C-alpha cells in the first residue's frame, strides 16, 4: 500500500522498512520467512512495472538485489518478463538495467552456481535481448541504455557458459540483424551496436584442435617467411656494400 500511497514521502520510510526486513532475513537465513519475502518483492516489482501510481524507483530494487543474494534468482524471471511486457520504452530500460545487474551479481557470486541459476531462463533471455536490441525508442539515450544493458547481459552469459556458443544457448537471429544497423544513429548508440555485433557475430565456440594446429602452422610459416626475407635483405645489403667498396677501390686506383 505504501508503494501506491498519495502521501508525499511515504515511499522512503516504506522502502527503508523493506530493506531492514531483508537484512533481518539475511541474518537469520532465507528459510525463515523467505517465501513471504519473495512474494512481497515480486508483487512490488509487478507494481513498479505495470502501475503508474507506484512510488518506488529502480534504486530501491537495486538495493534489494545487492543486499539479498538469495533473492536474485527468485526475482529473475519476473525481471526478464518485465522487459518483454513493458508498457513503455522507459520501463523497458529500467527493467533491462535490473536484469543486467541481477545477471552480473549472479555471475560474480562467490558461492558459484551461476550456470544452474541462469540456464533455466536462457530461452526467455533470448527473447529479452531480442526485444531490447530491436525495440523502438523515443530517445537515443534510451536506446543507448537498452543496448548497453543488452551487451552487459550477453557478456556475463558468454563468460558463464564459456564452452558453449551464444547462439546455441539462445536465439540471436533478430539481434544479429539489429547489430548491423549502425547508420543514422548517434555515436554513443553506434559504439554499443559495434560492441553488440562483436558479441553476437563472433560467438564463443570452442575451436577444434585441427583449427588450432592449422593456425599454428600458418603462424610458423609466416615467421619463417619473415626470417627468410630478413636474411635476403641482409644479403642484398652486404652485396651492395661490397659493390660500393669495389667502386671506391677502382676510383682510387685510377687516380693513382
Short description:
The protein is built from twelve helices and no strands. 76% of the residues lie in helices and 0% in strands.
Rounded Rg: 30 Å
What's the count of strands? 0
Order of helices and strands: HHHHHHHHHHHH
Low-confidence stretches: 202-215
Largest β-sheet summary? none
Strand residue content = under 5%
| Category by helix and strand content | mainly alpha
Shape: elongated
Percent helix range: over 70%
Number of helices: 12
Q: Average pLDDT across residues?
A: 77
Note the gap between the termini: 114 Å
Describe the structure.
This protein is mostly helical and 256 residues long. Helices cover 76% and strands 0% of the residues. It has 12 helices and no strands. It has helices at 11-28, 34-50, 58-67, 69-85, 89-108, 114-118, 122-134, 140-160, 166-169, 173-179, 187-202, 209-255. Helix 4 packs across helix 7 (122-134) and helix 5 (89-108) runs parallel beside helix 8 (140-160). It is elongated and about 90 Å long.
